């Protein structure tokens, strides 16, 4: 049995639990991404997770748990870090135009190499803070790097008029839900069951409300 086989089995088992069907080629690309993370992590400190099996659970499956909620043709992933959840989503949806936004130079260098090696033709990297990024996207993702109010304040200008903001959170963020900036409304909150992860996960879906000024790019 190859060294990769246990990881492959863990990933496939998790995908089954999430009711996701991905082809063999995509599964191998996802594991190639884990290999890249492992190789670059020593020098670049991309993630606190050091074990390949834990990366499958905490990075791949945790990211792919929101795949059923990704709609439209374009997605911006703010504060993407090592490419999470943006790269797993881009691998699962190769036709999706994905913009990976992060201001950290070392992480941006890793992202460029990952996009090149994984042949992500529709992914691009923006080395900048969220508030400096431009464009409009059908989906915007952010993986718990700030409060909902701060996320929307920094990146709300990137959300298309009929787009959906997909915010990944741990515990149910009631205080944050009560303090959304004007121009935005919570469409739904879904509790996510990530296979192998013994921790709370919630997905907050936010859309423009149309009853107030939405967050805009600062002048």
From TrEMBL:
Its main location: cytoplasm. GO terms for molecular function: rRNA (guanine-N7-)-methyltransferase activity. Its EC number is 2.1.1.170. It is found in: Cytoplasm. It catalyses: guanosine(527) in 16S rRNA + S-adenosyl-L-methionine = N(7)-methylguanosine(527) in 16S rRNA + S-adenosyl-L-homocysteine. It comes from the Bacteria. One of its GO terms (cellular component) is cytosol. InterPro entries: rRNA_ssu_MeTfrase_G, SAM-dependent_MTases_sf. It is an enzyme of class 2 (transferase). S-adenosyl-L-methionine binds at residues 79, 84, 130-131, 143. PANTHER family: S-ADENOSYL-L-METHIONINE-DEPENDENT METHYLTRANSFERASES SUPERFAMILY PROTEIN. Belongs to the methyltransferase superfamily. RNA methyltransferase RsmG family. HAMAP family: 16SrRNA_methyltr_G. Specifically methylates the N7 position of guanine in position 527 of 16S rRNA. This is Ribosomal RNA small subunit methyltransferase G. It comes from Dokdonella immobilis.
């Amino acid at each position: 049995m190859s060294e990769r086989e246990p990881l492959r089995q863990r990933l496939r088992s998790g995908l089954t639990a999430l009711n996701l069907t991905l082809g063999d080629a995509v599964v191998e690309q996802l594991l190639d991404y884990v290999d890249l993370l492992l190789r670059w992590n020593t020098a670049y400190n991309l993630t606190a997770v050091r074990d390949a099996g834990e990366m499958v659970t905490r990075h791949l499956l945790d990211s792919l748990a929101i795949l059923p909620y990704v709609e439209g043709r374009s997605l911006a992933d703010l504060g993407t870090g090592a490419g999470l959840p943006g790269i797993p989503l881009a691998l699962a949806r190769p036709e999706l135009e994905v913009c990976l936004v992060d201001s950290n130079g070392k992480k941006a260098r890793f992202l460029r190499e990952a996009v090149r090696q994984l042949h992500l033709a529709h992914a691009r990297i923006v080395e900048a803070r969220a508030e400096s990024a431009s464009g409009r996207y059908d989906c915007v993702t952010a993986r718990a790097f700030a409060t909902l109010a701060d996320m929307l304040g920094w990146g709300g200008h990137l959300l298309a008029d009929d787009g959906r903001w997909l915010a990944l959170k741990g515990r149910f963020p009631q205080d944050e839900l009560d303090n959304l900036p004007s121009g935005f409304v919570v469409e739904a909150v879904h509790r996510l069951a990530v296979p192998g992860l013994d921790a709370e996960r919630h997905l907050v879906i936010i859309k423009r409300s149309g009853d107030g000024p939405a967050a805009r790019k600062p002048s």
